[in-house]
């Protein structure tokens, strides 16, 4: 059974049995892996403080017969402790790791997504990532996963979205008014919302006003739920505690 | 070929955490060999724990009456309230014999990835409890992990505007510990939370 070393970001953990833990990792070279950490809950030394969401680790893994790998050791490369000092930063970091977990498949390398998440966690740690940054991160992550929503033209006819555009998650983005009758689930959205989201996709980082952010959150929630087949849990948490 | 009642007992014991099939068998044989009163007392204790133990109406720890012993004890300082995740955490703090105030058990922590929000915890009850104005300080003793920190920060956001002093239990090296063998996360926290002498 092959042993290998990789860099990993912890996406989530779940307790297993009496003293073990299953850790979902996004590794730099091997993609998303589910690692079995034997004795992780009992031993205070072996993985102490390392197996928590959004930790960046240097991990030693061993392939097993099944789809999971065995986690032999984990050294903390970055704990992003700065991103634990504020509830909004924690909420954004957890949303980011949950989105990455859901957008990836096991054992499929995703270097760009790894680097994107790593950079975003670094910004959160440095307290340089406001609410708009999460929308920008989501759009980039969706693009990396091949699910980039279209905001610059009508998803059906390719023409300009017009002054009274709609958004349809099933067709992958903006729908112009004349094509609206072909997209029954499409909802009307302000033209400035599409231009704001397009600017974020193009790399501009101008903060969006709160009202537009709320509309953008709604649109992206619907889009992501439609394509993943379920709503992300951390979205509900952010709504419950009044954060974005 | 073993008798059915014995098989049933082994099967039930094996469902307990930390008990495997062999240990369950050993325990079952122990009960079988013990005097009849022991089995009766054991079964009665199990029945009573389910029938009589419930949550304290004020602090939500465990009790067999309306209020728990901590809430009924008039010698305890009602100006200080310690918020913990579970009853087991309360017992751990009580073992220190350092804390003489009262408790509030949340029965969990905020867990965004598991979909646990403030509504699922005893946070509303905590705020109601503070309405009488007796509490001057709240000690947040949730675990030093991401979820525990999120819960402490959320509670701080709710409690600070009420004019209550909010403190967080310290994090860092254990007493009698050895720096050389401390894990990275704990040592990093101990450094960042250092205090001036």
From TrEMBL, chain A:
SUPFAM superfamilies in alphabetical order: ArfGap/RecO-like zinc finger (SSF57863), Nucleic acid-binding proteins (SSF50249)
Boundaries of every DNA replication/recombination mediator RecO N-terminal domain copy: 1-79
GO biological process terms on file: DNA recombination; double-strand break repair
UniProt cross-references to InterPro entries, sorted A to Z: ARFGAP/RecO, DNA_rep/recomb_RecO_N, NA-bd_OB-fold, RecO, RecO_C
UniProt superkingdom: Bacteria
Annotated keywords: DNA damage, DNA recombination, DNA repair
GO CC annotations on file: bacterial nucleoid
Function recorded in the entry: Involved in DNA repair and RecF pathway recombination.
Family: Belongs to the RecO family.
Protein name per Swiss-Prot or TrEMBL: DNA repair protein RecO
Automatic annotation (TrEMBL), chain B:
InterPro entries the record matches: DNA_Rcmb_RecR, Hlx-hairpin-Hlx_DNA-bd_motif, Rcmb_RecR, Rcmb_RecR_Znf, TOPRIM_dom, TOPRIM_RecR
ZnF (C4-type) ranges: 56-71
Biological-process GO terms, alphabetical: DNA recombination; DNA repair
Gene3D superfamilies, per database record: 3.40.1360.10, 6.10.250.240, RecR Domain 1
Domain Toprim span(s) in chain numbering: 79-174
Molecular-function GO term, any one: zinc ion binding
Cross-referenced CDD domains: TOPRIM_recR
DNA damage in keyword set: yes
Keywords: DNA damage, DNA recombination, DNA repair, Metal-binding, Zinc, Zinc-finger
Function: May play a role in DNA repair. It seems to be involved in an RecBC-independent recombinational process of DNA repair. It may act with RecF and RecO.
HAMAP family given in the database record: RecR
Family to which this protein belongs: Belongs to the RecR family.
Protein's recorded name: Recombination protein RecR
Gene expressing this chain: recR
């Amino acid at each position: 059974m092959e042993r290998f070393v990789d860099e990993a970001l912890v996406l989530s953990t779940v307790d297993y049995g009496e003293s073990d833990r299953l850790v979902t990792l996004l590794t730099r070279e091997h993609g998303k892996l589910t690692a079995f950490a034997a004795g992780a809950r009992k031993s205070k030394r072996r993985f102490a403080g390392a197996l928590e969401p959004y930790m960046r680790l240097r991990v030693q893994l061993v392939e097993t017969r099944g789809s999971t790998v065995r986690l032999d050791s984990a050294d903390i490369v970055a704990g992003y402790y700065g991103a634990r000092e504020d509830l909004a930063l924690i909420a954004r970091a957890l949303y980011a790791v949950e989105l990455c977990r859901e957008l990836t498949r096991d054992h499929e390398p995703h270097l760009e997504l790894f680097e994107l998440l790593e950079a975003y966690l670094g910004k959160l740690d440095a307290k340089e990532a406001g609410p708009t940054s999460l929308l920008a991160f989501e759009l980039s992550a969706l693009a990396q996963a091949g699910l980039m929503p279209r905001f610059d033209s009508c998803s059906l006819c390719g023409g300009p979205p017009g002054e009274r555009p709609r958004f349809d998650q099933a067709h992958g983005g903006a729908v112009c008014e004349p094509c609206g009758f072909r997209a029954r689930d499409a909802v009307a959205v302000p033209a400035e919302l599409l231009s704001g989201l397009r600017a974020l996709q193009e790399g501009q980082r101008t903060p969006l006003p709160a009202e537009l952010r709320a509309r953008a959150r709604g649109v992206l929630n619907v889009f992501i739920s439609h394509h993943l087949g379920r709503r992300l849990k951390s979205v509900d948490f952010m709504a419950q505690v009044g954060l974005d | 070929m073993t008798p059915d009642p014995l098989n049933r007992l082994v099967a039930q014991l094996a469902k307990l955490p930390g008990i495997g099939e062999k240990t369950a068998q050993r325990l079952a044989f122990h009960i079988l060999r013990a005097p009849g009163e022991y089995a009766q007392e054991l079964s009665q204790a199990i029945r009573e724990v389910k029938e009589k133990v419930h949550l304290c109406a004020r602090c939500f720890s465990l009790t067999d009456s309306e209020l728990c012993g901590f809430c009924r004890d008039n010698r305890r300082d009602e100006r200080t309230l310690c918020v913990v995740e579970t009853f087991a955490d309360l017992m751990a703090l009580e073992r220190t014999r350092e804390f003489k105030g009262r408790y509030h058990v949340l029965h969990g922590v905020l867990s965004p990835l598991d979909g646990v929000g403030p509504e699922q915890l005893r946070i509303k009850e905590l705020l109601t409890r503070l309405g009488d104005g007796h509490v001057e300080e709240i000690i947040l003793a949730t675990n030093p992990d991401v979820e525990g920190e999120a819960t402490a920060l959320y509670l701080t956001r709710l409690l600070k505007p009420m004019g209550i002093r909010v403190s967080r239990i310290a994090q860092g090296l254990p007493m009698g510990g050895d720096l050389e063998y401390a894990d990275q996360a704990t040592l990093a926290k101990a450094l960042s939370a250092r205090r001036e002498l």
